[in-house]
Design goal:
Blueprint: E1 10-15, E2 18-23, H1 25-28, H2 38-43, E3 47-55, E4 74-82, H3 89-98, E5 105-106, H4 111-120, E6 132-133, H5 142-151, E7 154-156, H6 160-172, E8 178-181, H7 187-192, E9 195-199, H8 204-209, E10 212-214, H9 222-260, H10 274-287
Parallel strand pairs: 5-7, 6-7, 8-9, 9-10
Antiparallel strand pairs: 1-2, 2-3, 3-4
């Protein structure tokens, strides 16, 4: 009757046995008739907790205007899901951080769960070891948001427009931003980043706006891709130095013979010598290029 959305964070259905609601505990707890003490304990362990709650069939899931609303709820069950880190995730994160890439985690899950998973993956979550709730971002202007984003690594309970604001904040601060996502709620942030990276198993909308699609659904593929990209840039830079030296030398020769009234020292048929002085050396210089930061 009420479908799940990232902004609502719960869904509901009315049956003959009553009204059933399933969603995030922090949202449903506000209407729960009993406290839920076990939620905090599970969340800080890095588990994703969902709550199933019940209300009478006549409680209704919408107000008079047809907007979704929660009735008073009786908690029935909790589901705790453990996210399993890919074996290559920690190594990929270590390589990226070693290469000077700053990582930030932006998720729609509970900030405490996201922070715990980030620490397991080897990401430093800051001195306090916590995360920022996305709801607090709406209260900040651009200047305050920039300061918060610069000092924070993990963001939880973020809506699509908040993800987009975080990406825009990083770009305002002069960073070159790559955004990785797989859901429809990531599409706006991917489009706002310089490089959008989508997963093959993600939504079609996300794949359409992305610049790169990871066909094996593992962001570890970005590590060799970054290394090869830096080798290409380094090789092009070295080659440009060689060609610019050749052009500058020819320019000096042209100026000198013109001022002295001499004939040009070599004919067009001799230009093929540049194959030995420029062409072949450039080929080997490109092969020997190292993946240094551009």
């Amino acid at each position: 009757d009420v479908p799940f959305t990232s902004s609502l964070r719960w869904s509901g259905l009315t049956t003959d046995t009553g009204t059933w609601v399933f969603g995030a505990p922090d949202v449903l707890a506000a209407r729960s008739v009993r406290p839920l003490p076990a939620v905090d304990e599970l969340t800080v362990r890095g588990l994703r907790v969902l709550l199933l709650a019940w209300a009478p069939a006549d409680a209704g899931l919408r107000d008079h205007d047809g907007h979704p609303r929660l009735p008073d709820l009786e908690p029935v069950a909790m589901v705790a899901l453990a996210d399993e880190l890919r074996p290559e995730a920690a190594d990929a994160i270590t390589h990226l951080q070693r290469d000077g890439v700053a990582l930030k985690i932006i998720s729609g899950d509970d900030p405490r769960t996201v922070a715990a998973l980030a620490r397991r993956a080897g990401i430093d979550t800051g001195a306090r070891g916590g995360a920022v709730d996305g709801a607090t971002l709406d209260e900040l202007d651009d200047a305050a948001l920039d300061r918060l984003v610069a000092a924070t690594t993990v963001f939880g309970r973020t809506a699509p427009e908040q993800k987009q604001r975080i990406v825009a904040s990083l770009r305002r601060q002069g960073h070159y931003v790559a955004m990785i996502g797989d859901g429809v709620n990531d599409a706006r942030a991917l489009k706002g980043a310089q490089v959008g990276v989508a997963m093959r198993s993600g939504s079609a909308v996300t794949r359409d706006v992305a610049d790169i699609v990871l066909v094996d659904d593992s962001f570890a593929a970005l590590v060799p891709a970054q290394r090869e990209g830096r080798r290409i840039i380094s090789g092009i830079a070295v080659s440009m130095y060689v060609f610019l030296a050749r052009v500058a030398t020819q320019g000096l020769v042209i100026v000198a013979v013109t001022m002295l009234g001499l004939g040009f020292p070599y004919s067009p048929t001799q230009v093929g010598l540049t194959l030995l002085t420029v062409g072949i050396p450039t080929l080997f210089l490109t092969i020997w290029a190292r993946p240094t930061p551009p």
